[in-house]
Amino acid sequence: MKRNKRLLAVIAVILIFGFFLIVCSTSIEMKIRFAPGGEPETLDPQLYSGIPEAIIEMALFEGITRLDKNNVPQLAVANNVEVSPDGLIYRITLKNTKFSNGDPLTAYDFKASWMHALKSEDKAAYAYQLFYIKNAEAYYSRGVKAEDVGIKVVNVRTLEITLETPCPFFKSLLALPTYFPVDQQNAQAHKDWYADGTVFVGNGPFMIKKWSHKDKMILVKNPNYYDAANVKLEELDFYLAQDGNKATAAFEAGKLDGLNNLVPEDIFRLKKDGNLKTAPMLGTDFYRFNTTKKPLNDLRVRQALSIALNRQDLMGNVLGGEIPAYAFVPGTIPDAVPDKDFRKMGGNLITEDIAKAKQLLAEAGYPEGRNFPVLTILYNTNGKQRLPAQAIQNCWKRNLGINVNLQGQVWDNYQQNQQGLSYDIARACWIGDYVDPMTFLAIFLSSGGNNETGWSNGAYDKNIETAQKNPDQRVRMEAMHEAEKILMQEMPIIPVYYYVQNYILKDNIKGVIVSPLDFFDFKYAAVQ
User: Fold this and answer.
1) What per-residue string of b and e applies to 39-53 under the rule 16 or more CB within 10 Å gives b?
2) Listed residue (272, 279, 285) closest to 258, CA to CA
3) Alpha-carbon torsion, ordered 469, 470, 476, 478, to 10 deg
4) In what residue span(s) does the Solute-binding protein family domain sit (predicted)?
5) 394 and 492: one domain?
6) Same domain, yes or no: 79 and 209
7) Cβ atoms of 225 and 204 closer than 8 Å
8) Are residue 191 and residue 322 in the same domain, yes or no?
9) Residues 116, 242: one domain?
10) The pLDDT of residue 6
11) One domain for residues 460 and 358
């Protein structure tokens, strides 16, 4: 009897041990290996200028708000944000949180960080994102003193921000890297804190364990992060190769779990293989008309050129999964109506119609394209811009019987010619700075520094001014819808396509938020 009991005990131990072996052998490592597109130029969030550092900084820092999967700002480091009835004053109460080294995060850290971005000598690429704050732009231009800027520390956990005018999307701006807090104690103690992983300090869901420059950055879960319980990853490795071909090869060799820096020649192959993923991106590719020159000063000509295009054909045969644009503002921007975005509410504002285009051209004095002057399309030579320009050139020849030339220029010359209206038609693009239609529509104000078309419309300006100054979201959105209708009727530009984010990510990785601002947020990521 005792012998049987011993035998049963041995069997039980073997079964239990075997069970644990199975569990251990099938456990999932909560680790992601991702290539963000290269070595970050800096990890100082106030001085970031590119997507690689933005993606990494989203993991290492957190602002007053954080954009959720629907691009709606949610409270993050802030416990409460109280907005005055006139929309000018934001009183922000901070949570009791710490930096990764244990230093307390205070309102002073936020103010000092933002003022750092506003020092013109530091040349912060996105300093203008702070210009909504009262006197921020004047301080940047050295027109006022630091104490005149509308950033006030009420106490260690309370900030009071005064704006120049109401800015309904200000909470979205607060989620951007420019608004991230830097530990001032650490920054003063270590001059090069932003370039050295051993002394780097952040306040986000992850912290740096090791940084081998131009090779790999290893992040681990930040135990001092206030919301660490909801961070599932134990390790997040960023591979810093800039070469998209090498990154794609590393993924296909099983050395990476994802990347975003895809080269055009790989996109169609990856799509065919089933590895390509796409997400909406807050960007529009379009062509400007110089409306001060004949025949482009004639509305009928501009409309004819727009509706004679076959955007769907262009997307399928020339580009890599982009979305045809039948209006200017892209999708994914929330409207005032719950669960609706601005594009869906506004609908398509361009209807392609070759017969109508020919009619308009004839009415303008160019039947079947006869006597139409030879125009030139200006495009930038960096990137993949020649192929779309050639496709548009061929489309106009085929559908309207007109000839256009192509002229590629290096970036600086291309920019200067647009700014000086020294062009006929110019390829252009715009990537949104924040999740609101205003980031696109303010471009074409009569006084807009990026208008570059010679076009001006008083009714358009009035609608934009209403949207800029009225805190009521319904009023704002109605005004911006009306402005976009005017823009698409007057047609100083031709929207061609909306950008998409082409990327690779293994199917067993869930919870990564792919932002239309081109960011990847790994806070809620997990491996299944």
Assistant:
1) bbeebbbbbbebbbb
2) 279
3) -110
4) 74-451
5) yes
6) yes
7) yes
8) no
9) yes
10) 56
11) yes
